[in-house]
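Title: Prediction job returns without error message
Component: structure pipeline
Severity: low
Priority: P3
Assignee: unassigned

Description:
Job completed but the reporter wants confirmation the result is attached to the right record. Sequence as submitted:
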Amino acid sequence: MNDMLSMAIFTTLGLYTLAIAVAMVRVFGGPSAQDRVLALDFVYVVGMLVMLVLAIRYDSEMYFEGALLMVLFGFVGSVALAKFLLRGEVI
C-alpha cells in the first residue's frame, strides 16, 4: 500500500470517528426522540462506512459482509423504533 492511500485511510477514519462522536452527542442529548432515532441511524451508516474503509485497508472481504449485516440490523432497528414512536408498540 502506498503512502498516499495510507494517509487517506487514516484521515477518513479520523473524520468518521469525529462524525460518530458528534452523532452520539445528539443521541444522548437530542431534544426529541425522533432526533435521537435519526442520530442512531446515522451512527449505523457511519459505522458501515468505517467497516468498508477497513476492508480496503486490510484487503479483506469479511468486512464487506459485516458491513452489510450491520446496516441490515440498523435498518430493522430504525424501523422498529419509528413504529414504536408512532404507535407506542412494535408488534
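Comment from assignee: result matches the submitted record. The two ends are 49 Å apart (CA to CA).
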